[in-house]
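## retry 2 of 3
previous attempt timed out at serialization; input unchanged, resubmitting
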Amino acid sequence: MSQDKKYATCSFDPQKESLFEKRKEQVITMGVCENLEPKRVFAYFEEICGIPHGSGNTKAISDYCVSFAKEHNLRWIQDESNNVIIFKDGSKGYEDSEPVIIQGHMDMVCEKENHVEIDFEKDGLKLYVDGDFLKAEGTTLGGDDGIAVAYALAILEDDSLPHPPLEVVLTVDEEIGLLGAESIDLSMLKGRKLLNIDSDEEGIFLTSCAGGLRADCRMPVSRTETEGMEYELLVTGLKGGHSGSEIHKERGNAVMLLGRVLYELRQSGSFSLETLSGGLKDNAIPREAKALILVSEEDSKELLSTVERLNKTLKQEYRSSDEGVTVSCRKLEQKKAQTLTDASLIRILFMLRAMPFGVQNMSTEIQGLVETSLNPGIMTLAEEEFFLCFSVRSSVTSRKYELTERLAFITEFLGGELEMHGDYPAWEYEPQSQVRGLMAETYRDLFQEEPKLQAIHAGLECGILSGKIEHLDAISFGPNNYDIHTPQERLSISSTEKVWKLILEFLKRSHL
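## retry succeeded, writing output
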């Protein structure tokens, strides 16, 4: 960490009548972003970080955006899902130009390090500046996609900027299946040019994306009383990451690795399984997983030996992608507990060893692009049920469903059932795009750099929005934001400023 590291804890008071009454005073008090450029973008971003806005907890951030619109006398719509649309007329000389839609999502993925005490339902984030990066202490930052909201509010606030009529669309629950985009009514919009600010590599402009869904696998289990020495098994030290944009990096999945550990233990000795858990989000590669097991005294030595062997093996296998991976075992106490019957344990081990995960197919049309993948992101073991949740992605619709059918077949074979949620379509490439051409030209002129046009394996809202708005011409982009969906997330300050200049210049040129 650099020595210019500066901290502030953001906070949000839901009891305020107006969320904007003390906005300037709050920014001065918080102070972390006060010297960052562009000032108003980072000022709004800091305020957003003070408002709890994890997926499924978006009422406060939605109301904040509505309060902004009211304060600035802008027309707005807020629907029952908490999606918000804000309208602003074109500036002088742009009144009759075709509207431009600026779009992003309000929710963030809430991940934290184990030692961090935070209630994401109530608490703001603790921000700090580290060199060129803005970070949150021990948690995700929410630059995905809070920076889009901050850009939009800063543009809407400034009456000096030249721009066509603006239609700002801020959706919710993107991170758990693009639910806001699915539910929002966009029939009132007149714009056909969409800027989706939800990409994390500056200079790379996305032109298509994969479709996806969430698959919940549930399997009943039975228990019996067992006595033995209780041990805690842990798989830790993995990097995790976004299950779409980083799935090709072959990072370890803690859920599946713990399944491998338990399988190996079963091969070398006997144990009873008490609890099992791992991962927090279906679209984040799990970084940690834990099991509590009971072992007889005669099997304890073999348990420790197997764990030590697997720890060395995994460190060797993942030395490039996850050098910190660790398998550990901690002795707890002699006890009696309700553990899984042998038949239930075998079914869980079969599922964890037989289920596919990671990259399944690479595109045969676009070199280096992942076509189909899946990520087991959440694992829990309740009293009577084992639960394993997958994020399934593919740019080929038939393969998305074929892969889901494989999961269903294995789950049903083991006596369980699969339920699908949040099914969203792929965003298909548009050969003729005025937005893409103008954006590439603007980027080239401003920075003397050649823009890169790419497809992405992660899901974007452009696919759903294209189905709601006929002849929509869309592009997705954003500033450099590294390790999203992990506590190591960091937003580049200099890149945020470059993208700000790019957006303003695009809007300025968009009436031509």
